[in-house]
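DM from R.C. (forwarded with permission)

"hey, sorry to bug you on a friday — could you get me a structure for this? deadline for the figure draft is monday and I only need the backbone to look sensible"
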Amino acid sequence: MDKEKITSKQAISIIVLFICGSTLMFDAAQGAKEDIWLALIIAFIAIIIVSMVYGRILTLFPGNNLFQICMIIFGKWVGSIFCVLYAFFSIHLATLVLHDYAEFMSIVGLSDTPEVISMLCMVLLIMWVMKEGIVTLGRWCEFFIVVVLILIFITIPLFIPHMNINNVRPFLYNGPSSILRPSIDAFTFPFAEPVIFMCLFNNFNNEKSPYSIYRRGLSIGAMVVFVSAVTHMLVLGPEEMTRLYFPPYNAFRLIDIKGALTRIEIVIAAGFLIGGFIKITVCLLVCCKGICEIVSINNYKVIVTPICIFSIIIASSDFSSIMDLLEWTMAVWSPWALFYQVTLPVIILIGAEIKVRKGSRKIRTN
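My reply, with the result:
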């Protein structure tokens, strides 16, 4: 299970596509309206600080992933509780993204096709990639990260005729407190979601430190999220952007260059499908690894099929509509996700520091 290794470049590519996954269809920090750019900057600064916690944990126990580190620090029984929590968080995040994908396909393209069929098609491909291993996923991401970035940044200039600078004015019109919640929302979605990559770091080559991998991946991903969200705000305006289910998709539909270049919303749809595919795959991979660590299974691939099937069952039954999903996200996601993204890592870091210092004292005593 631990023989699979990917390069630092591939790891960074996976993190970038993971961050871009859902945000290519649901722009982050929409609630900040005119101050969306400021909320994203605050969220980015916050995740760079928190990522130092992630990096420190991994640095203290090199060559181990988060599940293994929890077992080392807290022992079998308490460590298993942490493993269960992160395995649950991972599969729940996977089902949310899978539901987003199915809703998107149902609303914009395949309205007569049952959502479970769309989910099944996606999960069958994910299942194949997971069984091929993380090396295949890394190579795949190393190629498609270039494709996604080129497609996104080539299309940005096409929005210029539709942009209105007044859509990001006035500055802090509703006061500084108005950007607090949107900043937290942007932090939890999508910037801090790569917390689960700590569960895969034993599959990364030691070419670069965990700090470097997180910093580079988060920086590139944040740049894409920032440019996309601000562009869409300039084009759609705050009221229209908060009203729509899929603001980026609707923004791309406005592009029409004298009838010669139209209907290029397929670009953003393709980016969302690629990013969503990566995000679901990583989440389910982490879940499988967590379960294997708890029950002492050496090869996570033996449980890939049942976990993938279970994800379809949950995704197809957890929300009745996209309105229910968005209402739950706005009301519950941020405080719930902060527990996994900030609270638990801080607890683990404290335990790790105590464990390492005790070990150092024993060595000195001997």
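R.C.: lifesaver. The radius of gyration is 21 Å.
me: no worries. The chain has a mean pLDDT of 91.
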